[in-house]
UniProtKB/TrEMBL annotation:
<keyword id="KW-0560">Oxidoreductase</keyword>
<dbReference type="InterPro" id="IPR000659">
    <property type="entry name" value="Pyridox_Oxase"/>
</dbReference>
<feature type="binding site">
    <location>
        <position position="83"/>
    </location>
    <ligand>
        <name>FMN</name>
    </ligand>
</feature>
<comment type="function">
    <text>Catalyzes the oxidation of either pyridoxine 5'-phosphate (PNP) or pyridoxamine 5'-phosphate (PMP) into pyridoxal 5'-phosphate (PLP).</text>
</comment>
<keyword id="KW-0664">Pyridoxine biosynthesis</keyword>
<comment type="pathway">
    <text>Cofactor metabolism; pyridoxal 5'-phosphate salvage; pyridoxal 5'-phosphate from pyridoxine 5'-phosphate: step 1/1.</text>
</comment>
<feature type="binding site">
    <location>
        <begin position="8"/>
        <end position="11"/>
    </location>
    <ligand>
        <name>substrate</name>
    </ligand>
</feature>
<dbReference type="InterPro" id="IPR019576">
    <property type="entry name" value="Pyridoxamine_oxidase_dimer_C"/>
</dbReference>
<dbReference type="Pfam" id="PF01243">
    <property type="entry name" value="PNPOx_N"/>
</dbReference>
<dbReference type="InterPro" id="IPR011576">
    <property type="entry name" value="Pyridox_Oxase_N"/>
</dbReference>
<comment type="subunit">
    <text>Homodimer.</text>
</comment>
<dbReference type="InterPro" id="IPR012349">
    <property type="entry name" value="Split_barrel_FMN-bd"/>
</dbReference>
<keyword id="KW-0285">Flavoprotein</keyword>
<comment type="pathway">
    <text>Cofactor metabolism; pyridoxal 5'-phosphate salvage; pyridoxal 5'-phosphate from pyridoxamine 5'-phosphate: step 1/1.</text>
</comment>
<feature type="domain" description="Pyridoxamine 5'-phosphate oxidase N-terminal">
    <location>
        <begin position="34"/>
        <end position="158"/>
    </location>
</feature>
<dbReference type="Pfam" id="PF10590">
    <property type="entry name" value="PNP_phzG_C"/>
</dbReference>
<feature type="binding site">
    <location>
        <position position="123"/>
    </location>
    <ligand>
        <name>substrate</name>
    </ligand>
</feature>
Length: 213
């Protein structure tokens, strides 16, 4: 096998300069997200969600961003999941968007706030029915003996809700990640990457600074 230490490439697609920045980070985030969508990247809304448990052990997983505005970034999950259990004890959280094909990354650091049951229900009812049923069939993050048993639970839930709407499970919810720092990373030639950090000040405005690569 080829030595992985020899795997490298140059990043020459674009640059990021002060003139490209917006006064707050959300306009730039929206522009970059639209670029990822227009480039037909697989799962452009996929993001790594990092949480920390009560022992201080970090944990990461991929989820899909479902909404965002100037108040934060929204995702949904089973409230019995590992990430939800972590957040119940420590609401500090980090998000990461890895748009490798565009030589771009965005890292978001903040706190997670639970969404209202009204907001959660509104989104849940917009999901395809098989996805709604899957939420009932899966006790996320819990051990299970086999895939066959999971499919059996899905079949049972499908039969149960065959003739009507699928109700919102009591164990299904969502979070809004309220950011206090957002970093934009654009790969650069000779590893001289462009990095800009937005940090929210106590008065509510955003301060920006260029970081060394």
């Amino acid at each position: 096998m080829r030595s992985i230490s020899d795997i490298r490439r140059d990043y020459t697609q674009a640059g990021l300069d002060v003139d490209d920045l917006s006064p707050e980070p959300f306009a730039l985030f929206e522009r970059w997200l639209q670029n990822a969508i227009d480039a037909n990247l697989a799962d452009p809304t996929a993001m790594t969600v990092a949480t920390v448990d009560n022992s201080g052990q970090p944990s990461q997983r991929i989820v899909l961003l479902k909404d965002f505005d100037e108040t934060g970034f929204v995702f949904y999950t089973n409230t019995g999941s590992k990430k939800a259990q972590d957040l119940s004890q420590n609401n500090k959280i980090s998000l990461h968007f890895p748009w490798h094909m565009l030589d771009r990354q965005i890292k978001i650091t903040g706190t997670a706030q639970k969404l209202s049951s009204v907001s959660v229900a509104k989104y849940f009812m917009s999901r395809p029915k098989p996805s709604q049923i899957a939420a009932w069939a899966s006790a996320q993050s819990r051990p299970i003996d086999s895939k066959q048993l999971l499919m059996q639970k899905f079949s049972e839930a499908t039969a149960k809700f065959a003739n009507g709407e699928v109700p919102l499970p009591s164990f299904w919810g969502g979070y809004r990640v309220v950011p206090h720092q957002i970093e934009f990373w654009q790969g650069g030639e000779h590893r001289l990457h462009d990095r800009f950090m937005y940090t929210k000040a106590s008065e509510g405005n955003w301060h920006t600074e260029r970081l060394m690569p």
